[in-house]
Amino acid sequence: MNAKIISFVATKNPAVASRFYAETLGLKLVSDDPFAVVFDANGTMLRVQKVQELTPAKYTVLGWDVLDIAATVEELAKKGVRFERYEGLSQDELGIWTSPAKAKVAWFKDPDGNVLSLTQFRT
User: Fold this and answer.
1) Which of 77, 83, 106, 116 is in the most buried spot, having the most CB atoms within 10 Å?
2) d(CA 43, CA 48)
3) In this structure, what CATH number is given to the domain that contains residue 19?
4) Which pTM was predicted?
5) What is residue 123's predicted lDDT score, i.e. its pLDDT?
6) Alpha-carbon distance 1 to 121, whole Å?
7) Which letter does DSSP use for residue 23 in this model?
8) Quick one: pLDDT at residue 76?
9) Is 120's pLDDT higher than 90?
10) Final residue of a structural domain among 54, 78, 97
11) Which of 23, 56, 29 is nearest to 41 (CA)?
């Protein structure tokens, strides 16, 4: 299919999610309607859907390809983002894991518990 991707994540608390995605992650707010808070995620539409019930997935639902994962982790940590640690993964002091293919990955959660990630493919 030759069309742009639209990404989705859900929230039970749109006001808190809106602040997190706009202020903490720095995404540009596009609109807020009864169904979703919409952001421009560097050219990709992110629709933060407003829902009554939410059971967050235990896996990554949204991620970013970053140039310098350590600097990005440190920047987000200063804004209060807590990076996840997973048993069985060898993560460094910042919570960054290096995959067998040498990609570096760090995980964190949004206020609703959705798992988000940062990945640095280039070393």
Assistant:
1) 106
2) 15
3) 3.10.180.10
4) 0.94
5) 65
6) 25
7) I
8) 98
9) yes
10) 54
11) 29
Supply the range of the domain harboring residue 121: 56-123
Please give the full DSSP string across 53-110, using - where no structure is assigned: -----SSEEEEEE-S-HHHHHHHHHHTTPPBP--TTS-B-TTS-EE-TTS-EEEEEE-
> What distance in Å separates the CA atoms of residue 108 and residue 103, rounded to the nearest whole number?
17
User: What's the confidence (pLDDT) of residue 122?
Assistant: 77
Tokens representing 50 are 């407003």
- What is the token pair recorded at 73? 């982790």
- Alpha carbon 3 to chain centroid distance? 22
Residue 109 is predicted with a pLDDT of: 98
Residue keyed to tokens 């749109």:
14
pLDDT, tens only, 22-54: 999 999 999 999 999 999 999 999 999 999 999
CA distance 32 to 34: 7
